[in-house]
TrEMBL record:
GO terms for molecular function: DNA binding; DNA-binding transcription factor activity. GO terms for cellular component: cytosol. This is Crp/Fnr family transcriptional regulator. InterPro entries: cNMP-bd_dom, cNMP-bd_dom_sf, Env_Response_Regulators, HTH_CRP, RmlC-like_jellyroll, WH_DNA-bd_sf. Keywords: DNA-binding, Transcription, Transcription regulation. The keyword Transcription applies. The lineage of its organism: Bacteria, Pseudomonadati, Pseudomonadota, Alphaproteobacteria, Rhodospirillales. Gene3D superfamilies: Jelly Rolls.
Length: 224
């Protein structure tokens, strides 16, 4: 007798989400982006919510003085652009693909209708918002209390999605040291020093296009 393995909550959630997204109809469209393609720019009209079906994006802002900074990286299964639902008329950040990416774009009107009419979808979306808020708090704590070396290690592990892939080496598109410095909150010189250190220790490997992150990099965060 073969016992059927029960579906995990994650599998059920993904299945339910796909059913609801497929039911949107005219209020949605699928768009494919190449690495580094701009999805929307800071200051563009905020009139849709975006769901990452596969791939990933980076979120950046430019200050009034022209200073550029990366404030987040999101992977498959994440939403962005949700500010339009709270009355935000313009996007407060720019979003671009950091690898080949497929995004489902849901119009503001269609999203509001789904949240009202589809309790299952509303629950999934709320779960994402709560998780995303916790991540923001975690990032702030990281910035306040951890060294730039540990913050860099954490950013690299997040880029490699170790929370999803488990303890295996993961190859990701290479990120510039300027972008890493912006994300970590330190100088490019410090990033260069730690990247060379990590490579010498065999924790990462990289060439002109890709970077391989090894699970042993986790030890930088765990150990003092």
């Amino acid at each position: 007798m073969v016992t059927k393995r029960p579906e995990s909550s994650t599998t059920k959630q993904a299945f339910g989400l796909k059913l609801v997204l497929n039911a949107v109809g005219d209020g949605r469209r699928n768009v494919h982006y190449k690495n580094k393609d701009l999805i929307y720019r800071q200051g563009d009209a905020a009139d849709a919510v975006y769901y990452i079906e596969k791939g990933g994006v980076q979120i950046s802002v430019v200050s009034g003085q022209g200073k550029h900074g990366i404030i987040g990286v999101l992977g498959a299964g994440a939403f962005f652009g949700e500010g339009c639902l709270s009355g935000q008329s313009l996007n407060l950040s720019s979003v671009s693909a950091n690898k080949p990416t497929t995004v489902i774009i849901i119009s503001k009107v269609a999203m509001q209708r789904m949240l009202h009419d589809q309790p299952e979808f509303s629950e999934i979306f709320m779960s994402f918002l709560l998780s995303h808020n916790s991540q923001i708090v975690s990032d702030l704590v990281e910035l306040l209390f951890n060294s730039s070396e540990k913050r860099l290690a954490r950013v690299l592990l997040l880029l490699a999605s170790f929370d999803k892939h488990g303890m295996i080496s993961v190859v990701v598109p290479k990120v510039s040291q300027d972008d890493l410095a912006s994300r970590v909150g330190t100088t490019r010189t410090r990033i260069n020093f730690f990247m060379n250190k990590f490579r010498t220790l065999g924790l990462i490997e990289y060439d002109n296009d890709t970077m391989k992150v090894h699970p042993e990099l986790m030890n930088v965060i765990v150990h003092d």
